[in-house]
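Worked example 4.2. Below are the chains of a multi-component assembly; read each line carefully before continuing.
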Amino acid sequence: MSEELFTKLAQTVIDGEPEDAEALAKEALEQGLDPLECINKGLMVGIHKVGELFSCGDFYLPELIIGADVMKRALDVLEPALLGDQKREVVGKVVIGTVKGDLHEIGKTLVATMLTANGFQVIDIGVDKSAEEFIAAIREADADIVGASALLTTTMLQQKILVEAISEVGLRDKVKIMLGGAPVTESFAHEAGADGFAEDAISAIDLAFRLIDAPE
Amino acid sequence: MVQSNHRQEIAGLVHDKSVEILREVGFCAPEAGILARLDSAGFPVDHEAQMVRITPDLLDTALKTLPRDVKLYDRNGEIPARFEVDACFMGAGTPVKVFDLHTGVQRPATRLDVCQLVAIQDALTQVDIVRPTVTATDQGDFSDLVEIAELLRNTTKPVVHRTLIPEHVDAATEMLFTLAGGVAAFRSRPFFATLCCPISPGYFTPENIQCMLRWAESGVPITLLSMAMGGASAPATLLGELIVINTDILAWIVALQILFPGTPLLYGSVSAVLDMRTGLLPLGAPERGMINSGAAIMGNYYGIPSMCGGLSSDAKQLDAQAGFEKVTTAIPLMQEKATIIYGVGATDAGSTISYTQMIFDDEIIAGIRRMWQGITLHDPTEEVELIKSLTPRGNFLTARHTVRHYRQHWYPKIISRDTYSTWLEKGETIEAICRRKAQEIIANHQPSPLPTAIESELEIIMRHHLPEFRFES
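Applying the procedure described above to all two chains together yields the following structure tokens:
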């Protein structure tokens, strides 16, 4: 019975059916199933399959993003129900946002979703965020990585300011910093004192794995 | 290609749907002062949601004051020969990277690149309108002003640039008016147009709006330039994407005409569709030319000049891909009678400018322009008499008629028509020829200089912002 439900849960992620996922997650809890098993044997199996289909070219980004969103809908039901010391296994924790003055959201959100689909816990703080807001989120989440995006030549300077601010508050050794956005280059990221730069969403995922030294 | 009735149908439908969206949902003006201004001008404003709607009355008034005779002039007050006759081609811009002319290696662009790339565009016969094409990354926060100053100094052709910083608009207009000899002189023959980009759908940043209002106040022609991404910031169908493009542009056509009646506006789009395998924005895709041909259709529908992104490529070197993409993204814009085609020198999805590509683009444009003339209809009496007299087996090579007409055919400057053995003997690749030609232009081409007094005045204006600024002699 539970195996059948896990399979169905995985399938909702593959098919991109958020309502079904949420309903199944609730049903699982009502039946007294272990929420952590629902995550590991249901949702994670589904998102891995989505990842495989993306890698071999059967799925494109919309299916991948929708799959990650479906997973999140079910996680919102299952995670609060985790028992005692149970914890969802995550590859790492990432705080991500666009820097102060920059409202270009799509690229940042794409990276956030891809990270989620790859097993990271992502705290997406949104757009136009000051260094203080980034720092507060890093502290609250005890993040391993912070990702900062800027699309304009005028706002990319805020990325530098962010890196400086993180150093000033003494968090520089605790968190890896990755930068992204159309005008950003490897040399700019290096000069700004960041740990890495990614040109697109897929290389951002590789970079995140490299930065925390986790196997992909 | 689009049939003419089909084209009218698209334009009418897109306009109607934009009007519907602007009437029911509106657009976002994310700043209290701007909202208050639009409110007192008669727009229905939701201050809390920062949304502004457009009524049919406002639309009618705006479309009545929208100038239909917007023209760009060169520094000498002449309208470029091709403007509104043929599509004008314009430099691309303005990424932070350039492929180095000598090494071919990608590196950050500098003020020297701006000067050289502007001078090259000044020299190229097929380039009608000039952009800095790159950002001078060595000039910090004032790169935009330095780029404008160098544009004004290094070419006599009409120029287009922007700033993202409202305070810089005043310095820019001061330079423009100084060069023109006053506000009225500039307004009567503008040699500079700017551009402002929305974040689709339905949003301009407060800074961008402030810039637009300042430019409009000074009477500088503004291009409302959409950068929609089909499948990301707009629907995935081209028609749906065009509705987003048009809604964003129409919103500010109306807002600017109501606030500053008679402001000269251009209809722009450098949109594309997202590559769903990577999340990147390919600009060499056929869809690039297709969607921006929509901007030409809509510009013609409203009767204002269009500026359309095309002649684009994702290639990283001057190769077969570059040739294919440059042409396929330009053709739909020619087909739909774009006023300005925006893309000379661009490569690597618009994120790097290439000197050699810029030189080769001149060759591509010349070829496309020739092709576009098609078979012309004229009285063929002379030809018919000639055919009769030379039938059968006559030779047309020495006929006077041939001598008079063969020069209409296109003769390339770069492309090889040599035999294999001659080509082998010359041993120079297209890339090498283009590099050599770029170096020759940089070494030999002297753009017509500014009067010394004007040059000094521009330097003084620039020094208010950059105390060390001076033009290189």
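Take a moment to check your reading of the output against the notes. Chain B has a mean pLDDT of 96. Residues 4-57 of chain B form one domain.
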